[in-house]
Amino acid sequence: MNSKFLTGNKSNTGQAFWVATGSFSSFALSIISAAILSRYLSKTEYGSYRQVIYVYNTLLVVFTAGLPRVFSYFLPRYNLSEGKEIVIKISRVLLFTGLAFSIFLFICSDLIAVILKNPELSRGLKFFSPVPLLLMPTLGIEGIFSTYKKTIYIALYQIITRMLMLLLIVLPVIIFSRSYLNAIYGWILGSMIILVIAYFFKGIPFRGVSLEKSGLGFKEILSYSLPLVSASIAGTIYRSANQFYISRYFGPEVFAEFSNGFIIIPFVSMITGATSTVLMPAFARIIHEKGDVSKITTLWQNALGKSAILIYPIVIYFLFYSEEVVTIVYSEAYTASSVYFSIAMVLSFFNIIVFTPLLLALGESKFYARMHYGLAITTWLVQYIVIILFDSPAVVAISYVIIAICGLFIAIWYVAKKLKVTFFSLFPVSRLFIIAMHSFISLLIVDLLFRIILPEVIDILFLTIVGAAFLCVLLISAKLVKINYLEIIKPLLYGRNDGK
Asked: Full-prediction pTM beyond 0.85?
């Protein structure tokens, strides 16, 4: 493979592009596997499968102990030889925490099944329990390659491993029998192969580099990561409230509908996730070197503006056609999921603001933890009251979105205070409003036109035609509102290294 290609684009936009490409494959795994399994499994079987994944993802944050994020924080402060020792040291710890996670999952499976009121869950968790031991040591690849500006390897790793996992999860269900346990067997086999691949990839930046003692001890690592563990636990408690209440009070069938609907679409998550991955080492380096605050705000504003330009048209498109999209992806049996899908889309307008890397780079992990505990307590109390008053899973989802937006505003206010800048310099309302309204009006015009021209076209064809027309109208009219889509594409094509 061409060495220039593997070096990748050194601009932040180019680096974020490769992270986003890798992230897309991760989200494609969840969307495509959900679409296939929704058709092959009954709602009860599929609901049980989603509960297993929910339990795993909930506990994963706790057992990782904040260690995957340590790479992005410490590696920029050490040379390559010392970085090699840090990666080996933390990977070993992840192996032991993975073992503890697996043992916990096996022993506590019966208790978890009782809590979520699904006896079948006990069996599923027992079979699934080897997965954490196999996958925990694979974590941290994003932080390693983003630090050394080799994010193309993140894309390669994610594409290879996610394609492998997708095949191993869905094929046993399709070929052998329609049981969610076959999907879990695929998880185990895939995890074994991915463990080997991950260790190979983690060694790429350090190939030919001799190991040198970094002097970074576990005390220093834990002093940074433990507040993240606390924040992660709080964040997990906060984000799991929806799923817990709906799973416990409305049953596996409704939980299956909620799981398929209340999601952040892949394009949104991959863009914000890529932005966060690339900005964290950049912010950490500027703050460590006591650089000018304007460098931080400039990076932030560039990232925020470009994220909005990319994300808002996508969010508005899916919000317009939420019912059609959900029906196409999951079948008509999951039409009710479109309600949750629409609710989640509203949150996507605000999720473009990735405050986490800036808070952590500022060393504000304790505030980050306290904020998430506040959100967790508020969410669990409010949603319990909502269930008593309304007995509606949709209202539970709405309450989560409102609380999440409030939490985001609190984080922006705090960051602005620490940087001694204004709130609206970090949250440019007028600019974001213009980008959103431009997308909304463009799509509204296209939708009205094609509803008249193509009144009886099947959904998938209609959405494809409208999507193409929407893109054309968006690009043609962009100059009227001073939006430049090409400024995002050019760094990818020409390899600009201007910090943008």
From this structure: no
